[in-house]
Amino acid sequence: MDLLYSSPTPSILHHDLEINSSTHPSAQLRNSSARQPFTSSSLGMSCFTMTFGAISNITALVILIKSRIQSRRHAKVPFLLLVGALLVTDLGGHLIPGGFAMYLHVDYNQRLNVTRHATKPTEIFCQVFGASMVFFGLCPLLIGSAMAVERCVGITQPLRHNTSMTMTRVRRVVLLLASLALLLALLPVCTVGTYTVQFPGTWCFLPLLGSRSVADTNLILAFSCLGLCALTLSLFCNILSGLALLQARVRSKNVNPKAAATCIRRASNTSFGPVLFSLDVEMMVQLAVITVVSCVCWIPFLIRILWSVADEGSTGSVQQTGGLILLSLRMASWNQILDPWVYILLRRAVLYRVCCTVTTQRSMLRAAIPRTNSSRQSFKLQ
Asked: Which of 12, 179, 200, 345 is deepest in the core (most CB within 10 A)?
């Protein structure tokens, strides 16, 4: 969804549309002839973000494949499969909608140079563009909620997880969630609802501005509510999983304090081993950060489109409302860039190196403090 960077610069936004509050927004988008060509900087930013996001997801997928080959624990395999599905959908979200946005960029400038006025994208192009936006926007949120449920079952009920979370069932869950997102995306293509060009004319989605049909309203509500429910479920499962890990940690200390102290001392002296870098903690940290990133990136857009439905018929400026929706979409697109880096950076190998470096620096600092104190005492004696 790198199309957000293919939008015009703020100065062009004000010249893009001459909009009155009484005119229909979609008609303004269709009939506007005062458009200016997109700047090369916006096209360059779009190319950069799409390339950077694609490289990030491919790198994370390579690391994931290596981890899958080296993994010998059954508990990690379903989680790795879900992470792989998330990275694949993020990669598709960079390449497919980003490619459509770049095509719209180039085609827009060519048409404007030839005809001296802007023409909207073809209906088929807008249908495909809008369907890809809905699918690649909703699918990662649903897969993220499935990851949270899988980890919650794995931490709170490990025996049940080993018997129920098989590879076949996880694949079926991924297929079911992808089918649900695809079904919602294809309904407007089957004339149940419509996809229209959105302000400022650089992307296609369900009609968010102006009047809309009942089917369009229901699809917008379904998209937003599904996304918010997926984020809420992820947060709830992460809280349960975190509390279960904390409770197990406290219980292990209370059962045998001497053994726990010995284990902690060994971990701090050697490899930080099972206490700090256990497999459950690694996956839980990755999932928690992914969920937080998804909430920060997606909630403004989901709330904004819900508000657009509730605010239908308002006489507010279309430029102002469309600009806020576009800004929230920009935030949502960063989710696909940050997800792979969460997985890359929050692995045990990386965390182990960081903690080893911090511990080494602390030990050196502690060793240097007594030397400083002894030198000060000897100076005073002299």
From this structure: 200
